[in-house]
Amino acid sequence: MSCLTVLEAGGPHAIVVRGPALDVIDLVAGVSAGTIPTGLAGIEAVAAAELDGRPIAICVANERLHVFDLASGAGVDITFAGTAPQVITAGVLAGRPTLIGGAGTELRRWDIATGAEVGGPLAVHRAQISALALAGDSIVVSADVDGVIHQSDLTSGEEAGAPIDRPGELVASIAAAEIDGKIIIVTTDGRKAILPAGSLDEVDALAATVLHGRPVLVTHGLDESVRTHELPDGAPIGTPWADETVSITTVAVGHAGGRPFVISGDGDGALRRWDLTTLTPAGDKINGHTSWVRAIATTELDGRTVAVTAGDRSLRTWDLATGAPAGDPIDTRYPATVLAAADWQERTIAVCLHGDGRTRAWDLATGELAAGPLDEWAGARAFSQVGEVIYAVTEDHPYDEATGEYDAGEIALRAWDLAEGNVIGTPMAGGGAGGSVTWPPVTVARVDGRMVVISGAGRDGELRVWDMAAGELIFRRAGHDGQLTAVAATVHEGRLVVVTGGEDGTVRIWDGEAGVRLTGHTGRITSVAIDGIQVVSGSEDGTVRVWDLLTGDLKARLRAR
């Protein structure tokens, strides 16, 4: 569910949580007023206030409160006393900017300037508080998971009206406004907003503010639009704001005609090429697939560099230098989700994990099946060619001999040889602690004569590097907030250098013990690639960024349009 709040200072602005970023929307003009990267992976609630003349946003993430200056985007160092609440709102009480939070069944208050708690907890609810809103100067309207809504006077600490009981109705978001001395309450269950005079469909979050001198309702739709409505009838006002960002879903790098190129795929199925020498677009957008591009690899085919792209239920090849098709589409029957290109048995092949969970290899010259389907490679997460060997790394769960059950909370990685169909080494148990990453990022590299597996699987956000043959963990590193979503590796001057991206919107370069944190993306990182000493990252924010591998400096921000 989305998080939405409104900042009234300086003209009404809506603040919407979009992944690891805060989108600020000017409600008067109906346009974006900027995006703030937070570096937080799981923002659960947001509130806005004015502190010393500065607009700020307060976020709940990882059971902590985080404060950001909306003008500069910088973090604000405020430590709030006690345990963080689950839901929040903000206002001005007794002349002081105040944060109001729902912590379990209690209402609590903090002075935002100092972080000190104001007064004691107010035991208002019997069930956990799920949503909060302010009405007027001191009335907070709170709802709980049992569907009970209370109105509390924060000045006196007393009830300000009879409870409203809606049994079995979870209130996901709530808004309140005072009109002609009466408090109007609007709720949403995450899909529909309920107003006194009707309802609004396809709404997952809401707030109330004052626009042109009158109270209005602000909604965030399931289509990511932000709209304003009259209160109490819900009639639309003005122009809706809609995010038009096209997510970058994957990137790859290759060399054609002596020049390095990036090719990216997006959520609309289109492809774009970028010249890494000039850091500019190369040619027009390529309308390649009918659904989002899932994976890209580059290779040599018939004397030229081609990009192999996986989307819808097909593989397609493109001349990397010109962007023109380099052959007929290959019907894969199932979507391909992990992809690598290799030279194998005198053929150029694309090795893919398909939507049925099985691995297949396709001859790119003929479009015919070259190997598979391979049942033993079910759950493949990475393919890599080193010399004559094509490796696959698959994911499964460790088997407990004592109980006869698989441990669903842990991830084990296994390596395979495509030609022989044999397992290489021993299982790498402990590859991650569960998690919801759809395709855990894994890659393979050769370092000092041994094969290593680099894994970002698991919800713990840790990078792990394994000795493939021994199945032993070489090292692990923590750094991202939330899960890793992309990983790439290279060997620079004999050292393994790893690049990771996360759902927190940050990129990290790991060189031995050190880890450099790169910020700027405002969306989840979907892919990373390395070319020499250049790092390329793609993000759901619709940008491709190019970084210096050695210094971490940003070299270019390339926008998909």
Q: State the helix count.
A: 0
Q: Averaged pLDDT, please?
A: 90
Number of strands: 56
**Helical fraction:** under 10%
- Determine the oligomeric state from the structure: single chain
> Class by helix and strand content?
mainly beta
- Strand proportion, as a percent range, falls in over 45%
What is the 3D form? Answer: elongated
Low-confidence stretches: 434-438
Give the radius of gyration: 26 Å
Tell me about the biggest sheet?
A: 5 strands, antiparallel
Distance between the termini: 27 Å
Could you write a compact summary of the structure shown?
The chain is elongated and about 80 Å long.
Task: Characterise this structure.
- There is one protein chain.
- By secondary structure, the chain is mainly beta.
- Helices cover 0% and strands 61% of the residues.
- Strands 13, 14, 15, 16 and 17 form a five-stranded antiparallel β-sheet that branches.
- A hairpin with a 2-residue loop joins strand 18 (173-179) and strand 19.
- The protein starts with a strand and ends with a strand.
- Mean pLDDT is 90; it is low at 434-438.
